[in-house]
Amino acid sequence: MAKIDEIYVNSSIYEVKIQFPKKPLASIKADLDKHKSERLKGFRKGINSGSAILLVALDKKEIIGFGEAIISKDDNSKAEATKIYINKAFRGKGAGSMLMKSLLGWLKGKKVSSVSAGIFAKNFASIGLAKKFGFEITAVKMQKTLKSSK
Ligand SMILES: CC(C)(COP(=O)(O)OP(=O)(O)OC[C@H]1O[C@@H](n2cnc3c(N)ncnc32)[C@H](O)[C@@H]1OP(=O)(O)O)[C@@H](O)C(=O)NCCC(=O)NCCS
Q1: Is residue 33 part of a domain?
Q2: What is the arithmetic mean of pLDDT over 83-99?
Q3: In a mutational test of the pocket of ligand 1, which residue from 11, 68, 91, 141 has the highest number of ligand atoms less than 8 Å from its CB?
């Protein structure tokens, strides 16, 4: 679990920095720390429950990435491919595709008919991966920073 969380934390920092380059590293790390126990609980659920899955990608028995998908509690025909994170040194070599293929295969086996994924707009690698597997952009989430007036 420690290795999975290490990959998640390092890749999340990278992902957030792509979208919010001015965001201080300390604040990204603090956010990640705040949600650590909840996150680990989620990873365990992916291993132990019938409605979620956590898969790892290995290179010579070492975990180099992981993927997670969760079936909706309210509607078990819908699911989210929540996470695919690959260690930096192993990106662009097909591991993300392998995980995505396996997650979608598992969801199909569970009779899921619709899968979504939430991705930062500037995360072109992740958007490319999703598009490669037939995902289409169906919504755009917008955000604005409000500065307090003095
Ligand atoms: C996104 C990520 C999981 C992709 O995994 P990967 O193992 O590098 O992906 P693959 O090598 O299987 O490539 C799959 C497709 O993704 C796209 N892709 C991968 N890297 C890309 C890049 N740097 N720029 C644009 N598209 C890219 C391509 O369409 C590629 O298909 P192709 O090689 O057949 O053309 C990986 O880059 C990563 O871990 N990024 C940091 C964490 C992250 O942002 N995770 C997603 C959170 S939503």
Answers
A1: yes
A2: 97
A3: 91
**Structural domain count, the chain:** 1
pLDDT of the residue at 49: 86
HEC assignment per residue over the chain:
CHHHHHHHHHHHHHHHHHHCCCCCHHHHHHHHHHCHHHHHHHHHHHHHCCCEEEEEEEECCEEEEEEEEEECCCCCCEEEEEEEEECHHHCCCCHHHHHHHHHHHHHHHCCCCEEECCCCCCCHHHHHHHHHCCCCCCCCCCCCCCCCCC
Q: What is the CATH number of the domain that holds 120?
A: 3.40.630.30
Q: Which atom of ligand 1 is nearest to the CA of 90?
A: 7
| Ligand 1 lined by 50 (C-beta under 6 Å) | no
Does this model's pTM top 0.90? My answer is: yes
| 142 in a structural domain | no
Q: Identify whether 144 is part of a domain.
A: no
Res 46 pLDDT > 80 = no
